[in-house]
Amino acid sequence: MEPLSNKRKVLEVKPLNFLERAYLPAIVGGLSTTMKHFFKKPVTISYPEEKREFSENFRGMHSLKRDEEGRERCTACGLCALSCPAEAITMTAAERQKGEEHLYREEKYAAVYEINMLRCIFCGLCEEACPKEAIYLDGDIVPADYLRKDFIYGKDKLVEAPLNQ
Amino acid sequence: METPQLIFSIVLIVVIFLISLVVAMYSTYAERKVAAFFQDRIGPNRAGPWGILQPLADGGKMFLKEEIIPTNATGFLFIVGPSLAILTACIGSAVIPWGSAIQIGGHTFDLQVTDINVGILYIFGVVSLGVYGIMIGGWASNNKYSLLGAIRAASQNISYEISMGLSIIALLMLTGTLSLKEIAEQQHSWHWNVIRQPLGFLLFLVCAFAETNRSPFDLPECETELVGGYHTEYSSMKLGFYLFAEYINMFISSAVMATLYWGGYNYPGMDWVAAHTGPTVAPIIGVVVLFAKIFFSIFFFMWVRWTIPRFRYDQLMDLGWKILIPLAIANIVLTGVGSTLLTHFGY
Amino acid sequence: MITFYFIAFLSIFFSILVISAKNPVHSILYLILTFFTFTIHYILLNAQFLAIVNFIVYMGAILVLFLYTLMLINLNKDSEPVKPFMVKLAGVVGGGILAVAIASSLKLLGTSNPVLLQNPDLGLVKNLGKVLFDEFLLPFEVSSVLLLSAMVGAVLLATKEKEPKAA
What we know:
The complex is a heterotrimer.
Chain A: H1 18-22, H2 24-38, E1 63-64, H3 79-83, E2 89-95, E3 108-116, H4 125-129, E4 135-136, E5 152-153, H5 155-158
Antiparallel strand pairs in A: 1-4, 2-3, 3-5
Chain B: H1 3-38, H2 54-64, H3 75-91, E1 99-104, E2 107-111, H4 119-140, H5 144-175, H6 180-186, H7 193-196, H8 198-211, H9 223-226, H10 236-260, H11 270-305, H12 313-344
Antiparallel strand pairs in B: 1-2
Helix pairs in contact in B: 1-10, 1-11, 2-10, 3-4, 3-10, 4-5, 5-8, 5-12, 8-12, 10-11
Chain C: H1 2-20, H2 24-44, H3 48-72, H4 85-109, H5 125-132, H6 137-158
Membrane topology (chain C): Multi-pass membrane protein
GO molecular function, one term (chain C): quinone binding
Catalytic activity (chain C): a quinone + NADH + 5 H(+)(in) = a quinol + NAD(+) + 4 H(+)(out)
């Protein structure tokens, strides 16, 4: 067949000479290669104690942000849930009562906000969709757990800690 | 046998038994660590500092696993298999001289359980018996893969026993005795047999790898072809016994290799040390030296395992029958001619 | 003496089990045990070399090969050939004649003088080697020639002659 490129190299298979047939030099060579690796620094990162640096645009666990006065930014508009391709987000909206102005920035807020971490694909579309800059995927890796129900994260796990604490 | 020596022998048996078990236990740990280092990893490091409690954790796990005996297995032989494997692995240590005679409180004791005058042949017999554990277990499992593993083990062991025996014969022509104790004594200071028998040692080494079913000759448990090999159907501590037997075998064959070829408990400058430390401490140093040799040999087993890929089955048989046996016979002839010429010219 | 009787009883017991076991693999395993008791007999007779050779060669090699072959053959009830009655009868008659021959020969010999060993350490390697390669050199070498010819014969039987292909 006509070669498509000129990169083809025809290898000439020679019969092995005595030293090659005896295998011992090859075995010794192999042993020295492994011995070199024996003294190399291990590449392992012992995970829970050591962590690999995340890249700048790493998307981890979600957090619901607060504004500079410590009020929740989310207004429960539902755009994140709508944009979510995995349908991982649900929420229930509620009206802000008198005296709760220091808690919620907008007049409407999310009374329940749940993300199913088993459904979430960490695409970041919720982040893009949010008009209030309330949700960011800037957290850690979502930890493992034993039960499916424990992967549905509510507001207790998602909302950022209050400012002055 | 006098009473103190008898008591000492019993103590020695117990101690050696415990040592071989501990060495085998920590060989599993060492194997994992060594493998990790060869592959630029860390290895087990969770159980205890540096993971040194890992063997205990493994043992505990093995004991607590569910005991499964397949319905179609031959029940009694299914249990006999692993028991025989570990029994034959353990009894090999009886004739190995662990050190020269030691003096404690005015009595002189031999650091050897028994010095039978056919010591090498005893080791050889025990090794050849070792295959029964695998064969019986593999057959009793009533499983194709187990049976194939057992058959592979049998043919491999028989094939390599021949060249192993022939390589030992060349050694025996030089030593003129079958007693391991005398062989060890002949290699005083630096007169190690490996200097006189380099080819014989190489052949013995290859055969030792094959006899202990270690990589690159671990075809009886070749995962890619035979699932788990002869121990496919085994679980719990019965599997543990099979794995354990492999490591004890490795320990014993390392000890035999060290005694036959690497001078046993002898080391250069031992006379000077003996003169300066007295008849109690000097033998202990000898024992330490022997164990250093054994541990290096075990390390070498592991080093090879993580370097050389497994043979194909026909290559294994070719190597055994067409290369090792002729080489071993050539070695016998060379040894005979050499020693005759040397004595003729008066060396 | 008690040890001897015990071991002798065991060897007879196991050898009976060899022929009475239904499963051929079991009967091989009993044969291994029988050979093991033989090894103990040799040790009792102070023939260490013979004991260990019996151990290595018979237990360690030959019986492994037996077991190996039997494991490869699928032996079960269906594949067992049904022997005709005449063969069974011939077997019984032959066995009976053999028993009579052995009994009569034993009776003819009577109680021979117990063999007195001049050297009780004859069974040790050194003495045995000296006797074998000195006094009995010729029979020893002849037997090795016999083994060699048997091996050549086996190889000859195993290699199939290439039939000339008729065109």
